[in-house]
Amino acid sequence: MNVPKCSIITVVFNGEAVLPLTLQSIICQTFKSYEYIIIDGASTDGTVDLIRQNQMHIGKWISEADQGLYDAMNKGLALAQGEYVWFLNAGDRIFDSQTLEKIFTHAPPEAEVIYGDTMIVDEEGREIGPRRLKAPENLTWESLRDGMVVCHQSLIVKRALAEPYNLKYKVAGDYEWLLRVLKKSKNTYYTGFYVCRFLEGGINKKQIVKALKERFEVMVNHFGLFSTLLRHFVIGWRFITYVAKNRRF
Questions:
Q1: How far apart are CA 147 and CA 60, in angstroms?
Q2: Are 131 and 230 in contact (CB under 8 A)?
Q3: Which of 36, 72, 142, 167 is the Cys-Cys partner for 11 at CB 3.0 to 4.6 Å?
């Protein structure tokens, strides 16, 4: 039986407090056919010392300044040698010690995109609850008309399909990247179980506005202007209707 290798990539900057959670979730996996890569953005806290202390568990790592998150992720892709790639940023964790084994035991060998459900956690690792958007059972590029319906950290992608991230986008680069991946993919596989514990993180209002602008541009490029405007109108109408029904007088 041909056992695939998975390249797990962690991007981190000043993540001394949360990186140990990610590290431990990988070290404890019962499935050992993986390589672990850490891309550090020249951290100024104790992150690099922590990486050095755990070098026996890390296949490759670099620490240098970058041009942002997606530039760092591109560096990870360039170093990856596994058949699949999985991005788990500092603070995110593989769901439990048997997750990788369950994934690659059940996923068919022809699967090009493997995905599952996401549990949101706080910085202490405590469960907050499932991600609001549940992953669809049949994921296609057209599923993304509704936005990022699958958490990026709950996606495992064939490296052959994983093109570099577009550095034009600073916030919505993962959304644009997944659209390109899914347009090329012929076989997606839904695990039906939790695969990731995703660290909850807020973004400020400026980033929210930037994310909305970038997401709109990406949608127009892939779905067309009319379709994108219509979709936004439907979402807006549903929101207004929901607020009206739940308003208390």
A1: 33
A2: no
A3: 72
